[in-house]
Every structure is written in structure tokens, then in C-alpha cells.
Specification:
Blueprint: H1 35-46, H2 51-54, H3 80-84, H4 87-122, H5 126-154, H6 162-173, H7 177-202, H8 206-233, H9 239-259, H10 263-268, H11 273-282, H12 284-293, H13 297-303, H14 309-317, H15 328-353
Amino acid sequence: MTTQSRYVAAPGDPTWAIGALQETTFRWEYDDGRAELLALYDKGKRQQWDAQERIDWSKDLDCDNPMMLPDETISIAGSELWNKLSPQQMTEFRRHAQAWQISQFLHGEQGALICTAKIVQQVQNVDAKFYAATQVIDEARHVEAYSRLLHDKFNMVFPMNKPLQALIEDVITHKDWDFTYLGMQVVIEGLALAAFQSIRDKAQNSLAAQVNAYVMQDEARHVAFGRLALRDYYPQLSDGERDRREEFLVEACYLMRDRMDPSDVWAAVGLDLKECRAIHEAALATLKFRSRLFSRIVPTVRDIGLLGPRARKAFEDLGAIQFADRDSAVMLEEDNRVAEEFDAKRLVTQALAQ
């Protein structure tokens, strides 16, 4: 059965064509690499993996709560509206809500696949082209993993939501290569890491937790790639040029806050959108989740030198400025450690089964 037949709502045309003008850069110096970036490239080569083999696809999702996530992750849970739902309606809501979230991951990963190929084409340094090439295959693997999770386990897919589509279009059509890094490697990938972590750490279903842990191991390198490249480049810009990038960053962050809008879920299960919206906006779960979404972005923005007055004010408004003091490198290394723990558990399980 095709993906088209699994969409909860029609996504429109079967393809989305984006016209963009961009330069292609060849580099004739092949022995001029930055040590940190080449080390990241070596790590990317070593950590390649096969989604068919590393993930245990024999595991199924739970019938009532597919990824076995606590209801605290649902913004309307506990409300009068939620308590009026029957057990069957609650089950339907959980399944749709979780499929919607994984669907946004899937579409975002295809966006990252295209944007990283654009980086290979545009970026001026060979060391960056080398690493971006490893990320291209990473992103293809992520699209493969999430599409299989939706096709084989959920049997349901949602279209890409409008805020994510708007930001991806901005990133793809922007002429300057560093805006691709800023929009994709810093904002979209950074937000994705926080969203993946919520499932990795809270899901009691081993398949769902495993998929997100392994994707996070790759994404941690991708965010580090953006941080290294932009940290070297942005000090060379004028104040006006940095201001333009800070403005783009702020707009992108507000788009990503709106990306986690489950209106499509409410509509799919037949709930009143206005009533759900009022509960959702007032829910403590919504405020906490929106704040955590930027926990990976704010430290990176600080590291690359874009935490100016405009960005600081935006992160204060988003309830995320407290993350500015976090060490992004420590968080990324923790993602790598957790993925290796999942590997160790999987090997033990396989050994006991023999």
C-alpha cells in the first residue's frame, strides 16, 4: 500500500517543486582542513549504520498507546474535554497524535536531506563538503526509518504542516550558503533533537525509543557541524550582516514554535478546534514543551555569536533563555552515549534469545 493511501488528509500535489537560485562552488585545495571538522567527518564515517539491521523491526507498537507515552505529553489531557472522551476515543487520539509527530519528523528529515545536499553544492571548504556528504546518507537513513515506522507500524501519515514547510522553503531558496546551515543545522535540527529526546526518554515502547535514540546520535553530529562551520564564519561578517542573520534566526524560531501545533490531529479525530486551541494554549504541558524545544538551539546560537539583543528577547519570550548557559558539546556527547547504551541492551537481548 502506498504512502498516498495512508495520508489522513490529502497532502496536495504528489511532489513539491521549489525554484531556487544558488551558486555551486568547486574547491581546488584538497589539503586544507580544520582539525575539528575533519575529526567530525571521521566520526561520521565510523558511525554509519543500517536502519534495516540496527533497529529491531520485529517489535510492534501498543494497540492503545502506540509508543507508550504518558498522557502528560498531550496538552488537552486532564481537561474536561479529554475526560468526556471514551476509552476508544482516547486511543484514537493517541494514535493520531503520535503519527502526526512522527510524520513531521519524516518530512523534516527529507528537508534535511535536500538542504544537506545543497550544502555540499554550495559550501566553499572541502572539509565541510566531506562532512556534509556523510550527513546526506544519514538523512536518507532517517527518512527510511521514519517512513517504515509510519508505514508498517502506524499505517498512517499526516502531511507536512505549514510552519515547517514555510521554513524549509526559506532555507532552500536562500542564496547564501550559511542560511542553510542556520535554518537547518541550527534551528530545525536543534528543535528536532529536543523533540526526539522527549520520545527517546519517555516512550516505554522499545521500538519507538530505539529509532529516536539512533537518529539522535546522528543529529548530534549534524548540530555540531553547523556550530563549527558558523562559529568560524560569523566573526568575519559586518554588524549589519550578522543582524540580518539574527533576524532570520528569530523568525525561524517563531515558525518552529508554531510547528508543534496539533490542529491537524484535533480535526482528524473530530474535536472542536476552537475549544482544543483554548485548552492547548493555556496548558502547562504546552508551555513546558515549547520551552524545552529550544534547549538545543539557544546554546548553539550563543556559540556561533548570534545571541544578540533581538535573539535574546525572542528566547525570553519563548521561555528558553535559561538554556543559554548549557554546554552544547556535553549534551551532544550524552546523545551519543545513550545510543550506545541502546546498542548494548539490544546485543544482550539477542544473546539471551539464542
